[in-house]
Amino acid sequence: MVYYAGVDLGATNVRAVVGDDEGTTIGRSRNATPRGPTGIDVTEGVLETLRAACVDAGVDPEEIVAVGIGSIGPFDLAEGAVIDPANLPDSIDRIPLTGPIEKLVDSDEVYLHNDTNAGVIGERFHASRNPDDMVYITISSGIGAGVCCDGEIIGGWDGNAGEVGHCVVDPRGRLTCGCGHDGHWEAYCSGNAIPDYARLLAEDDPTISTGLPLEDPDFTARDVFELAGDDELADYVIDQLAHWNAIGVANVVHSFAPIVISFGGAVALHNEELVVDPIRERVSEMVMSNVPEIRVTDLGDDVVLEGALASAMTRGTGDRRRLRG
Ligand SMILES: [Zn+2]
Q: Rounded to two decimals, what is the model's pTM?
């Protein structure tokens, strides 16, 4: 029997699964992502989580033949490390991943992907419809895409391709993105951005009534979606989000010609009717090429983790024709 492992390193949690040669999960583990002080502490947290998943599966780490990792970026791919991750403390400048995991499992088959690429790999492996051209888009605290074009996962030289959340959707640039530039898709439509966007729209038109706690520092995107249908401002925000989301998705369609686009990430997963359905309606009128099927991943919060495991089983591709066997 051969075994595979998948690792999902996020800013909040690190998760690991061990699967058998059919891809059935037989062990799993989850821990809070260490907050440092150094990147090595995060590496150790990852190794500990992977070891715990092995214990849960009753498998020795050395019995694992390949590991896939879906991780927050950005990367130094040559070193197999995360460099200066945005959502972890500043003292964490470098998180070695590939080398230490290769050592733990005694295999050099370790595939490192950014989390959205792991997402598209998971969709490719598990979705009932999995053409050679598909895109996974996450709308969560940020926005990003994993792209499979002509059967190849597009990683980019540094592993950071697919940063579609930093495409300009609003040339007026009214909101500044976390990356420091203006008008980016993520600066309007990510879970982190929605509260500020709601405040901006409220300032634009003070005659719009609202029960949203705009002044409350704990005001979140969830408040907006919860008041949908009952609050004039919430409905206006949701309508404007659909506008920018559709522009962002139309840009992705024209860039990569996907047959299927799958959405994941908390904002999309928890608000399919308010976020994804309006995108589907609008995009069909905005593209000059093939209108892709637009759906929500069936893998839910596990899409990155399942994608990492699928990567291990398919030599980093998610393509069932390339099963390691
Ligand atoms: Zn940006």
A: 0.95
